[in-house]
């Protein structure tokens, strides 16, 4: 029988064969570490600048169809990296944004045509907001264990423990909680937590009023417009002016929020119309980083103008939807679509 002649390649393969058992054992030892490193790397990516792909888009429908996959991907990665603070905050913000822009706002606009469907969608929106709240809450708990319980017992004292670096988690916890309350004002357990929203946002304001291009001021516009214990019209106007100053005219969200909130509350039809027309005249392509937010705000502004007679009434007439309109509470627009920059 002929013996196969050894080739130069054989001389290289034989030592590698001897190493295979060692390499296999090393794989068992380090496989979990490699997986953990990969998951953390992906978590860092998802919680970092990737939001720009969405926020600069010019097609809200496309973004709305893509977001559910992104949400589930974030949740999948969080199962492997449950203490990744950046991803917890990003996931919270994504759930709140999706719940507002593609579930609750369309439900509000559908309400007059299909009340039952709109009601079901608002229930769904509430669930999305609560998921967002829970993820932001986990981020807060990572920094200060037990702080969520402290917020419920003494919010004013508990918020003093937060620092400037905690603002993203504070903001999205408050946004998610406030949004859930708005989606179901009959849930008294949630309504009882309303002071937490104000406490968190006022603390954030003290820490850095300019955070995220004035998003905190825009948030407090809505809080003061919908909270009897707030500063009322004076507070709303002051926050509106500061929000517009800090966003440098790049976001029309405050215009729509002011029209839908204070103008309806004050029954100021003329200013309502003026603000919304100003929002619609804005060139959403002028500032790509806020394009998506502005397009969604303009979409809602068109609906508000089309339904203007449902929000305003002649003297002596009773308004069918109440003085504050159907969506006055936490009708926040631009601020919810500016993810915190890492």
Taking Cα atoms only, what radius of gyration do you get, to the nearest Å? 25 Å
Taking the sheet with the most strands, its summary is:
none
Q: What coarse outline follows from CA principal-axis ratios?
A: globular
Find the count of extended strands (DSSP E, 2+ residues): 0
Poorly predicted residue ranges: 22-29, 318-329, 338-342
Distance between the first and last residues' Cα: 70 Å
Number of domains: 1
SSE topology string: HHHHHHHHHHHHHHH
Structure, described:
The chain is an all-alpha fold. It has a single domain, classed as Serine Threonine Protein Phosphatase 5, Tetratricopeptide repeat. The chain has helices at 8-47, 52-55, 60-80, 85-110, 115-143, 147-153, 155-158, 167-183, 188-191, 194-207, 211-226, 232-246, 253-265, 269-281, 291-306. The longest helix has 40 residues, at 8-47.
How is this structure best summarized?
With 342 residues, this protein is mainly alpha-helical. It is 70% helix and 0% strand.
Topology (elements, then pairings):
Blueprint: H1 8-47, H2 52-55, H3 60-80, H4 85-110, H5 115-143, H6 147-153, H7 155-158, H8 167-183, H9 188-191, H10 194-207, H11 211-226, H12 232-246, H13 253-265, H14 269-281, H15 291-306
Helix pairs in contact: 1-3, 1-4, 3-4, 4-5, 4-8, 5-8, 8-10, 10-11, 11-12, 11-13, 12-13, 13-14, 14-15
What would the keywords be for this entry?
342 residues, mainly alpha, Serine Threonine Protein Phosphatase 5, Tetratricopeptide repeat, 70% helix, globular
């Amino acid at each position: 029988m002929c013996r196969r002649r050894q080739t130069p390649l054989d001389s290289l393969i034989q030592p590698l064969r001897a190493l295979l058992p060692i390499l296999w054992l090393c794989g068992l030892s380090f496989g979990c570490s490699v997986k953990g490193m990969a998951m953390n790397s992906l978590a860092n990516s998802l919680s970092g600048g990737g939001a720009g792909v969405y926020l600069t888009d010019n097609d809200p429908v496309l973004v709305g169809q893509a977001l559910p996959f992104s949400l589930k991907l974030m949740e999948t990665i969080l199962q492997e990296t449950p203490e990744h603070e950046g991803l917890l905050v990003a996931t919270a913000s994504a759930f709140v944004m999706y719940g507002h822009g593609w579930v609750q706002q369309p439900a509000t606009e559908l309400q007059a045509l299909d009340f039952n469907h709109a009601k079901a969608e608002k229930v769904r929106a509430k669930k999305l907001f609560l998921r967002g709240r829970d993820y932001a809450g986990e981020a807060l708990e990572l920094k200060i264990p037990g702080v969520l319980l402290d917020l419920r017992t003494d919010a004013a004292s508990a918020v003093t423990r937060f620092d400037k670096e905690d603002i993203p988690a504070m903001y999205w916890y408050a946004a998610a909680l406030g949004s859930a309350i708005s989606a179901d004002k009959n849930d008294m357990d949630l309504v009882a937590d309303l002071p937490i929203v104000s406490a968190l946002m006022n603390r954030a304001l003290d820490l850095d009023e300019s955070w995220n291009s004035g998003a905190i001021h825009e948030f407090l516009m809505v809080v003061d417009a919908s909270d009897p214990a707030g500063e009322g019209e004076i507070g709303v106007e002051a926050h509106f002016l500061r929000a517009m100053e800090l966003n440098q005219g790049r976001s029309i969200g405050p215009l729509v929020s002011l029209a839908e909130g204070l103008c309806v509350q004050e029954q100021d039809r003329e200013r309502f119309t003026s603000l919304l027309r100003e929002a619609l005249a804005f060139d959403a392509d002028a500032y790509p980083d806020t394009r998506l937010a502005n397009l969604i705000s303009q979409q809602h502004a068109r609906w508000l103008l089309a339904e203007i007679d449902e929000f305003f009434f002649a003297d002596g007439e009773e308004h069918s939807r109440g003085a504050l309109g159907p969506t006055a509470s936490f009708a926040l627009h631009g601020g919810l679509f500016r993810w915190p920059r890492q």
